[in-house]
């Protein structure tokens, strides 16, 4: 289903100093970046299916960013969604998005930390993360996810993985990419093997843990989905122009922001484009039942 017209960046204008002071994800949300997870909306939909999400379900999306996936699922499936994230500006953007897409009745957003979820035990029919659990203290967070689930409900994660047995040179370069992402986000970041993801979900007491591995990415197909989810080609083009202009402005005016982009590109190249390293990396859609 197509969105009403998505308005991802109603204007708030920040000075270069203010933009530099933002945390990485708040800054990217300010620029208008809709989402980050590697499998895109195709994997969002797949993960929802794997977690048996339908229109009667109440879903928690942890680390929801600017709420793109949450609004998408609310429109596609009709489920109720609560999104939380530690990045305050991202949550503001998420609220605007829900309003502009006409799903504020179904999707609620609030600031919150994955390690101490502000919800009663047994509140949700599914808990989802997309490109978030990689940044967390999973021993604490997965226990929290399990606590807030109803019995028989699913945790579902869409996160990157790296293969276990890989040549020393590739191991070193992937470790370098992890270090860069940790440095620019200010969050600890690690890529786990699929075996390790399974182990960590089981350690939280989840049953029937199933980890499915995928390789990224069909860019063209994903771009089509993204454009549809933004309300069509013109909204997408408007978004691209707005984001590129803003990005260029801060890129030109701030050495600090230039440095961040440069480092980000280095890590993306290692993980997603360079053949000798990216072939050992992919994403998992993993589920476990309470
Ligand atoms: C790579 S982004 C992914 C955002 C979104 N899930 C997506 O797919 O685009 C990681 C998100 O996790 C959030 N995050 C990191 N640590 C968190 C924590 N402890 N609690 C809640 N959110 C967190 C960040 O603020 C950021 O929005």
Descriptive account of the structure:
It is a single chain. By secondary structure, the protein is α/β, with parallel strands linked by helices. The protein has one domain: 3-Layer(aba) Sandwich (Rossmann fold), CATH 3.40.50.150. Helix content is 49%, strand content 19%. It is built from twelve helices and seven strands. A seven-stranded mixed sheet has the order 3-2-1-4-5-7-6, with helices on both faces. Helix 2 packs parallel to helix 5, helix 7 runs antiparallel to helix 11 and helix 10 crosses helix 11. The relative contact order is 0.18. S-adenosylmethionine binds next to loops.
Largest sheet: 7 strands, mixed
The succession of helices and strands, N to C, reads HHHEHEHEEHEHHEHHHHE
User: For the CA atoms, what is the radius of gyration?
Assistant: 18 Å
The first-level CATH class name? Alpha Beta
What's the overall geometry? globular
Please tell me the overall pLDDT.
92
How far apart are the first and last residues' alpha carbons, in Å?
31 Å
Low-confidence stretches: none
Tell me what portion of residues adopts beta-strand conformation: 15-25%
CATH superfamily: Vaccinia Virus protein VP39
- The spatial strand order of the largest sheet comes to 3-2-1-4-5-7-6
CATH architecture: 3-Layer(aba) Sandwich
For the record, the count of structural domains works out to: 1
Bound compounds, each kind once, are:
S-adenosylmethionine
Total strands: the figure is 7
Structural class of the helices, strands and pairings? alpha/beta
Task: Provide a count of the helices.
Answer: 12
Share in helix: 40-55%
Q: Per CATH, what is the topology?
A: Rossmann fold
């Amino acid at each position: 289903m197509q969105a009403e017209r998505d308005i991802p960046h109603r204007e708030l204008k920040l000075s270069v100093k203010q933009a530099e002071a933002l945390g990485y994800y708040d800054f990217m949300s300010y620029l208008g970046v809709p989402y980050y997870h590697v499998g895109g909306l195709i994997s969002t939909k797949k993960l929802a299916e794997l977690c048996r999400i339908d229109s009667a379900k109440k879903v928690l999306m942890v680390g929801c960013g600017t709420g793109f996936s949450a609004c998408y699922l609310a429109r596609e499936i009709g489920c109720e969604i609560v999104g939380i994230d530690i990045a305050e500006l991202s949550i503001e953007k998420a609220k605007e998005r829900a309003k502009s897409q006409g799903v504020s009745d179904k999707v609620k957003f609030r600031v919150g930390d994955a390690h101490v979820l502000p919800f009663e035990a047994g509140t949700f029919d599914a808990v989802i993360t997309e490109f978030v659990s990689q940044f967390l203290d999973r021993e604490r967070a997965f226990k929290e996810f399990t606590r807030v689930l109803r019995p028989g409900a699913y945790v579902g994660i869409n996160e990157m993985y790296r293969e276990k047995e890989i040549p020393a040179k590739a191991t070193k370069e992937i470790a370098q990419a992890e270090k860069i992402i940790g440095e620019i986000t200010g969050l600890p970041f690690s890529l786990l093997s699929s075996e390790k993801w399974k182990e960590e979900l089981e350690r939280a007491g989840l049953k029937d843990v199933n980890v499915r591995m995928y390789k990224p990415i069909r860019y063209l197909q994903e771009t089509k989905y993204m454009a549809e989810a933004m309300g069509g080609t013109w909204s997408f083009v408007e978004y691209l122009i707005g984001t590129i202009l803003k990005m260029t402005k801060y890129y030109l005016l701030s050495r600090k922001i230039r440095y961040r982009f440069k480092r980000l590109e280095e890590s993306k190249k290692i993980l997603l484009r360079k053949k000798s390293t990216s072939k050992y990396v992919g994403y998992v859609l993993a589920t476990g039942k309470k």
